[in-house]
Amino acid sequence: MGTIIKDYSYTPAKIKHGYSGKSLYINLSDLRIEQKEITEFMKEKFTGGKGFDLWYLWHAVTPETRWDSPENEIVMSVGPLGGITQYAGTGKTLLCSISPLTDIPIDSNVGGYFGPLLKFSGWDAFELQGKSDREILIFIDGNNGRIQIEEAGEYPEDSHLLAEALTKKFAEDEDDMVNVSVVCSGSGAKHSYMGMLNFSFYDPRRKVCRFKQAARGGLGTIMHDKKVKALVVKYRGVKPNLNDPADIATINKVGVKYHKEMHDLDQKQNKMRQIGTANTVMIMSQYDLLPTRNFQTGGDPETVKISPQVFINEWLTQGLHDGCWYGCTMACAKCADHFLITTGPYAGQRVTVDGPEYECAAGLGANLGVFDPQAILEENFYCDTYGIDLISFATCTAFIMECHQRGQITKEQMGGLDLRFGNSHAVLELLHQMSRGEGFGRIAGLGVRNLKRVFVEKFGADPKLLQDIGMEVKGLEYAEYAHKESLAQQGGFAMATKGPQHDEAWLIFMDMVNKQIPTFEDKANALYYFPMFRTWFGLVGLCKLPWNDIVPTDNHKTDSPAKVPEHVQNYVDLFNAVTGKNIDKEELIVQSERVYQFQRVFSVRMGKGERKDDYAPYRSMGPVTREEYLSRQELYDKQLREFQKLDPETMDLDEKIAATRRYREDQYEQLLDAVYRRRGWTENGIPTPERLKAIGMDLPELLEVIEPKL
Amino acid sequence: MKVLTHKQELCTGCLECELACSRTYFKTDDRNYSAIRIIENNRTFHARKCTQCGECIDMCTANAIYRDRNGVVRIDKKKCVGCLGCVGFCTELVMFYADDLEVPFKCIACDICSKACPEGALEILVSRVKEN
């Protein structure tokens, strides 16, 4: 269809023990295509995945680089274990770039077939730098060693149409469709900072392209700015040994053991195979953790209308395989088939909606006061096909709705959109405006941090209130967990390197329910171990969910059930079996810490990795408003008596709110001190040279960044 | 549909069936390559072999398992990616694998083992029920 403007041949590198040893570099400004060596130094210090991404990104940018600078890169890598088929969750691609929302490196992990097929096509990593002068698509043919860059102006924009068109274009026949994977965004990414990237995988049973999202931090916005409409990879011949593992017998043995566990236990535990991550919606509501109406409360009696059972019984197709990479018997990528769209450009059409995942049901549901499964699915569909990160969109829209509720902005200032809690029609119209680049949709897409400034400057809103209720840290919108009663999780979110996302730590039950980490030292240990451990998934190409969304029957008898020791050992065994190395569970943490500390220093280099950047909006820590205090008055009064020896009977409501706040903010300062010490950081949150040396990361370029800050 | 049946009362545990299977398909006497396994329990012999129930068809992560025209559940070796999900999910424990094979293997009711059985303990039954 489009004119081919670059044709490049290469010999696909043979994979040895998990690594092809080559990375692909494409400069979009001058259409330069180069191959780079993955060095032993890179493998040793950065392992793969996010590690490789950050290393390349570090060398591409300067402290002045912003998201739309030509030198900014989108880098992706699947990691040495990525693409093995015998264990669940082994197809994760990690992407990094300088984010339009945060101005620091964002990392986003995603399923779908692109990453593994890219590696089998000979590439451990893929850098996209520069900007094209016209809309293009890049096609990588891994069987024939060919890369083509083609003009792409005439293809549709929205993901569900574009992925289908390109999958058909590049597949020879129906059976070949599974060998094609597309990365693309949508019309909404053009007009917002929260554009995301869809990674496709063809579902041969439903005969549609399914999607997983590299959602966080504006990667779709960056790709659109670079005028890349799509990346397409094609590789035919996936088999279990393509990673050339050192010891396939161990991989098979560990894999079969895990598959049996999934078969025997999932139904009794989380029902991931039936409902996926949305299984927790009711539990979150019961424990006051489901963000409701911009995190004002942690649940609502109406949650029952969007309960897992409702989605299972009425919306989600059951009994078909729903994994986003081969071998994933957890199969949590559920979807609603033949869903009838009622608004926008696709009204009247029946589509397959990928989801809802937990974040969707919580964010586009409870957090917007929308307790209507059909509306949630339609919002889900449009976020996906427009290429909009539904987490940022949900948290941002919830913020707008509360600003409206509290008289900070008017309906007229929102261009006539009646964005009040529960109005899903207005939410959908906001999405359509984002897609068209019109009206208030264009403003809303700037994200919470920018909106706070706009609402204050343009509409005279109260800056202090907006600071308290705007759920962002470092510029990134919060993921969908209310956590006022878990100090450890307040840190888990607000200290997260890229912004408040729970892929670093989810400690709420350990902290708040099971009371396993009562002291600051305990919390600091948890905020050391779990972020380090969970970083590792992104280095090697794995999904976190199979780690603890199912656990062995005797897990509760181990010395640390929250760590799921048997599964940690599975990962150690898998790593050694693929790479031929001999790590243990302690070395696994060191591998992670090298990259974790590197990313923190990278953030410092870009101007945002210090103590001042690790503070949470008070909404995440305690009751901002009188209604919030009153909603759990008994609990808060009790805490005043127990923790502060105050008598709530002698205090008025505002005094009680102020005393609670003073106490909680002080607790948070103490938490920061304890965690910084445990992580080997200064009081200002800067990694020390001693700590970097201890893990072999005292590289001159890192020391140069931190030394002026010590 | 075709399914292999086993008469416990006739089986002497001679394992000729296993040998016939592994020799036919993998040219080896190693019973780990047989799609039928005779298990001794208290001097009676039980046969582990596929019942052609087809539960693996929908769970297959590569859509590589299907029921053929004779009702036999089969693995399309070209589509199979060797994830071994079916091995872990088979309630009868009759989906087998070996580390030097790219894909698992199972009983396809071919009749070779029953012909090899000296006692007539194995038989292929053909029925019209349970097509899906």
Task: Explain what this protein looks like in three dimensions.
- The complex is a heterodimer of chains A (710) and B (132).
- Chain A has 710 residues and is of the alpha+beta class.
- Chain A folds into 3 domains: 231 residues, Aldehyde ferredoxin oxidoreductase, N-terminal domain (Aldehyde Ferredoxin Oxidoreductase,  A, domain 1, 4-Layer Sandwich), CATH 3.60.9; 212 residues, Orthogonal Bundle (Aldehyde Ferredoxin Oxidoreductase Protein, subunit A, domain 2), CATH 1.10.569; 191 residues, Aldehyde Ferredoxin Oxidoreductase Protein, subunit A, domain 3, CATH 1.10.599.10.
- Helices cover 41% and strands 13% of the residues of chain A.
- In chain A, strands 1-9-8-13-10-11-12 form a 7-stranded mixed β-sheet. In chain A, strands 3-2-7-4-5-6 form a 6-stranded mixed β-sheet, with helices on both faces. Chain A has a two-stranded antiparallel ribbon with strand order 14-15.
- In chain A, α11 packs parallel to α13 and α12 runs parallel beside α14.
- Chain A starts with a strand and ends with a helix.
- In chain A, 59% of the residues are buried.
- Chain B has 132 residues and is of the alpha+beta class.
- Chain B contains 4 helices and 6 strands.
- In chain B, the strands form 3 sheets. In chain B, strands 1-6 form a two-stranded antiparallel sheet. Chain B has a two-stranded antiparallel ribbon with strand order 2-3. Chain B has a two-stranded antiparallel ribbon with strand order 4-5.
- In chain B, a hairpin with a 2-residue loop joins β2 and β3.
- At the A-B interface, α7 of A face α3 of B.
